[in-house]
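Hi support team,

I've been running sequence recovery on a batch of backbones for a student project. Most finish fine, but this one hangs at about 90% for roughly twenty minutes before it completes. I'm not sure whether the input is malformed or the queue is just slow. I've pasted the structure tokens below so you can try to reproduce it. Let me know if you need the job ID as well.

Thanks,
M.K.
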């Protein structure tokens, strides 16, 4: 887990590299604020680890401090999620309600091993969803 206030650099091609700061964590995603352009985004821990060059704790003696700071079952739990076969396939369509905006049809574009990248043709938007989030939605067709 990364502490609130942690700073990171992220490349946004073709716009350049921006420095962001973690502002909050909701238990699933980190909210990162980029003051240079007054923008923010939600990022999963795996992406933060990649951006910051942090690997998952292993069981070597050189990594004991990191291990003791995290619960012992956390790495195993994360590895299980990543290695699990996805329940949803590319091309699966679903309906998602966005309060105040209506119901949108989404389509799974790809699966990165943890998150499903989905596309909403109605407005051209994209987002990453977890399997648990997809479980809560109405599936319209399997891919």
């Amino acid at each position: 887990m990364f502490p609130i206030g942690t700073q990171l650099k992220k490349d946004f091609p073709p716009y350049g590299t921006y420095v962001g700061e973690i502002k909050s964590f909701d238990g699933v995603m980190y909210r990162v604020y980029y003051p240079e352009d007054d923008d923010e985004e939600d990022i999963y821990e795996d992406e933060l680890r990649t951006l910051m060059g942090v690997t998952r704790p292993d069981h070597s003696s050189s990594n004991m401090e990191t291990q003791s700071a995290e619960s012992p079952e956390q790495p195993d739990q994360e590895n299980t999620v990543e290695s699990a076969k996805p329940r949803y396939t590319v091309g699966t369509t679903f309906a998602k309600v966005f309060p105040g905006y209506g119901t949108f049809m989404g389509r799974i574009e790809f699966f990165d091993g943890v998150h499903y990248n989905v596309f909403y043709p109605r407005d051209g938007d994209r987002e990453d969803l977890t399997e648990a989030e997809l479980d809560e939605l109405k599936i319209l067709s399997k891919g």
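--
Follow-up from support: It reproduced on our side and the slowdown came from queue contention, not your input. Strands lie at 7-12, 16-25, 29-34, 39-44, 93-98, 102-111, 116-120, 125-129, 138-141. No action needed from you.
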